[in-house]
Design the sequence.
């Protein structure tokens, strides 16, 4: 029994140390301004910085990977995630059986979020942000014209607009946007796709013109168009 108690205490101590080192790594990321996509120091350097063994560093990194703060790229190293701390499906969308209702409900929620994000983007988006939006919109158009799946690029475009709002809370809602786009594009037929895609240009034009009201209206028109298509799809199939 004494041996079991000592073993349990040792295990608890190791887990506490792992969590402490994980927190210190996060603090280091902030201090060094290591943002999304940046490579972090290797295990040896981190061990030297914090005065612990590589095994402890390895466990701390695993913990941060599970929290979607870090990602390991084989042969390249460990990097800061795109949206640190925001997991792919925090709301459990993949487990909802009624995908038709989920698509409809996600459009409703996106209508509450994205028009205001677009309005803020018209104020805060950088020239580089807008240029990236143009590139992504062109990719979406090309893939749609070629009858290829454009969901990933469409999602990147809407994510770019949301992030350009410079609202620090918005990244937490990115999964809603991504899942809404993916389910919309894969669950239902593409009603009048060309018209929907042309609205992307209207949104970006308004953002570039620094016209918040127009950006808000254009994004809302885009999503209202999607909502109308969802209702038609559910009524006709």
Sequence:
């Amino acid at each position: 029994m004494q041996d079991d108690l000592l073993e349990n205490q040792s295990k608890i101590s190791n887990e506490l140390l792992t969590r402490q080192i994980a927190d210190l790594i996060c603090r280091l990321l902030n201090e060094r301004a290591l943002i999304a996509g940046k490579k972090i120091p290797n295990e040896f350097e981190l061990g030297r910085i914090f005065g612990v063994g590589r095994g402890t560093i390895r466990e701390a990194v695993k913990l941060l990977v599970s929290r979607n703060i870090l990602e390991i790229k084989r042969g390249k190293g460990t990097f800061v995630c795109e949206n640190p701390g925001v997991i792919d499906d925090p709301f459990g969308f993949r487990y909802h059986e009624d995908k038709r209702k989920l698509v409809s409900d996600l459009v409703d929620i996106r209508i509450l979020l994205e028009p205001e994000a677009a309005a803020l983007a018209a104020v805060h988006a950088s020239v580089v942000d807008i240029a990236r939006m143009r590139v992504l919109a062109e990719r979406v158009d090309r893939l749609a014209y070629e009858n290829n799946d454009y969901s990933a690029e469409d999602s990147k475009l809407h994510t770019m607009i949301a992030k350009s709002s410079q609202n620090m809370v918005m990244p937490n809602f990115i999964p809603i946007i991504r899942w809404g786009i993916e389910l919309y594009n894969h669950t239902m037929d593409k009603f009048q796709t060309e018209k929907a895609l042309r609205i992307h240009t209207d949104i970006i034009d308004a953002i570039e013109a620094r016209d918040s009201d127009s950006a808000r209206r254009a994004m809302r028109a885009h999503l209202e168009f999607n909502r109308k298509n969802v209702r038609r799809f559910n009524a006709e199939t």
Notes: The chain has a mean pLDDT of 85. The longest helix spans residues 2-31. DSSP finds nine helices and two strands in the chain.
